[in-house]
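Holo prediction. Input below; ligand is NAP.
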Amino acid sequence: MSEKIEGTIALVTGANRGIGRAITEALLQRGAAKVYAGARNPQSLTDLSEHHADRVVPIEIDVTDAEKVVSAAEQAGDVRLLINNAGAAFGGGLADANIAETAQQEIDVNYIGPLRLIQQFSAILGSNGGGAIVNVVSVAGLTNFAFFPTYSASKAAAHSLTQGSRALLAGQGTTVHGVYPGPVDTAMAESVDMDKATPADVASAILDGVESGTEDIYPDAFAEQFGQQFSESPKASEQQMAAMIAST
Ligand SMILES: NC(=O)c1ccc[n+]([C@@H]2O[C@H](COP(=O)([O-])OP(=O)(O)OC[C@H]3O[C@@H](n4cnc5c(N)ncnc54)[C@H](OP(=O)(O)O)[C@@H]3O)[C@@H](O)[C@H]2O)c1
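Structure of the complex:
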């Protein structure tokens, strides 16, 4: 099963910048009928909605706010493609005084947020014929990138949620896609000193993966190589990360 982008109706969280904006633009380019563009501040979407008129519907969604998510589902009952893209990485080491609070915030955005959206939109997708859910996870959700230990743990929770949702929603015909990018050139990865993929290339690979029905999407060169190694030996991936930490 797969979801065609042309003619679909999508909702993207964190659509105002970074990968979410690139996904929104790629959806429009490929002929999506309508995109609900979710943002904490919908005014940050004015240029997009002015340019695309009624094909872009700005919608206020803070994924940590249960009422906002319920209200989004009430406004967007025609959605067929839910893209859980919003994410946050606050950084910090294990010995930081506020590390538990940081970890809680990352869990709220990166795991509980997508969980809330899936809870509210599953029945909508089912009643619209099945559709698809995309969770933008990270390679750091497969192996802890210990430069960002608590972010990685929150993404591991999102990865597990992806697997569970896939099993639970298969019966209603909803496909669930996990996306595992490597470094991408956005504000989130500003401090990362590695080669980075462009948000546009990553967005395009994500939509290709949805259309081809690919469950685990590795949308850039680093991710592809990492995914290959991880599928052969999760332990070797862990050891590679530990070696990177040891060499800094
Ligand atoms: N960049 C990378 O290297 C990389 C690699 C792997 C995975 N990812 C994942 O890709 C996704 C997009 O990240 P990005 O690189 O595009 O980062 P970004 O440029 O920092 O954008 C993050 C987006 O998430 C939104 N957001 C943050 N907290 C939110 C909340 N509580 N409710 C709703 N929206 C919220 C932000 O909105 P505001 O403008 O309101 O802050 C923004 O639109 C994230 O899930 C991230 O973890 C990124």
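The pocket of NAP is lined by residues 13-14, 16-20, 40-41, 61-64, 85-88, 109, 136, 138, 181, 183-184, 186-189 (CB under 6 Å). That is the main takeaway for now.
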